[in-house]
# Entry
Amino acid sequence: MKVLVVVPTHREAASLGAGVEPFVCGTGKGLGDAVAARLAADRPEVVLLAGYCGALDPSMAAGGVILARHVLAPGQPEIAPDRLLLEEVRKQLHKKHFPFVFSRLLTVERPVARKARKLALWNEFGAAGVDMETYAVAGAAAAAGLPWLAVRTVVDTSKQTLPRAVAKWGGEGDTRAIARDALRHPLQWAAYVRLARQERRARLALARAIPVLLEAIAGAKVVEAIPVVESNRG
Amino acid sequence: MGVPASEAIVVSRYLLKQKLQGRKRYPLVLMLEPLWRCNLACVGCGKIQHPEPILNTYLSPEECWAAADECGAPVISIAGGEPLIHPQIDKIVEGLVARKKFVRLCTNAILLERWLPKLKPSKYLCFTIHLDGMRDLHDDMVDRKGIFDKAVAGIREAKRLGFRVATNTTVFGDSSPEEMSNLFNFLMDDLNIEGMQISPGYDYPAAPNQAVFLQRPQMIQNFKAIFSLPDRKKWRFNHTPMFLDFLQGNVAMQCTAWGNPTRTVLGWQRPCYLMNEGYVQTYRELMEETEWDRYGYGRDSRCTNCMAHCGYEATAVTATMASPLEGIRAGLATVVSRKAG
# Structure
């Protein structure tokens, strides 16, 4: 079965290890079009979005794995993965005792850096994790009529406020600016060290999750994607 | 908090022991439902819609004690159905108290005065009387006139005989902040009860009136309004300060469904007190074979509007134990409420 693994950044792509050749879709406007073009060119049977996220669910620690049961974005209708594929993969992960949380993923335009904002989003949307790409990728896959799944591993927790420069992150091009800002603000070094450790846990978790997911997808009976539209609250 | 210091100490010691033993999941309150038969049909209740043969099935005292021993929770909440319909409820309670379990006997109090002579006051036994509002609202919610007066008479008599008495209030769409304030002032000033439990109504699909339930954002607004009223300082709740913060949307929490395992007449109910995905015959099966990470806010659509204490108080208690500041805050709340009481 041909599975296209989509990741937002090269940093996340590097964590997948050898044997997986992901499509790095980037972040921000144009992301949906880039994914749609790649899907048209590659014609995969299943799309698997993989990457990092921030946690909104207060029970999730760095390195926690979220398998999306719905993805949502403010003001947009909810999109659900193909139910049969999702259920089969979920059951196989459970059978393998692979630790994961089966919840919602929220997509926003800018990083959610402050814990007060994370609390507000948690109360409003009930999504375990928040990122900047899942909704667009899932939307492109659904529009192409392809079954898709999304998996994210947690970097920052819901109780954590991120360093100021990270809050301005808009894509991989901003990484140097963040590094420069970190050097200029020694008082935030501890926060950056913590974040680096958390990213390592997220990276290792993603590296562990992808082979298990690919195996589970290979063993699943895939049906045609039927996007489910529901309310985007709760 | 309205909980007595002795109970708070026992529960804290129990939690500490679980931590030291490295247990990931452990029970805090056993929800014991020795029967589902009830003498009311409350508009927001989805617990009692079972076929007649099941409603006629009661757990024996021995089965109740075995459940307590098997589970090991320090606190047992006897619910149902109406527990005082059970012909051996006195024996069940006696056996649990003998095991030094803190028993909360949840009742609508219709039969309370009949049972009081057969029960002994104890620091381990607390009646938790269901009151959803003052006279008109409560009688509407339980769908029968005169129940509020009956419950109040039962509370007065129980207190006169030296029993511990608390209340449990479910907040629905019709529970205006003013109505709740009147009720809480009455319970504190007039009846001088030990403490109050408060919880938003869970939207049971089987409940007779679905219109009474609130959506989560409305619930949060309602609780913010209730707790911003000037009389708030004199209300004693049997909850951690953190749980009350959660109800007002000030703290993020995930459900701890395994904190309140539920033993019913059909077995151990999976996954929680409010949702039913079948039964298993042993507590061990319940804890080890349930996919716990599949349930909770965001994870299951049935949990979307649930903010009930049977799911979130265990989270709050665990978080309170893990944070020295929250621990001090809860301790102070207990001391202050004791003085006020």
Chain B touches chain A through 21 residues (CB under 8 Å). The longest helix of chain B spans residues 324-340.
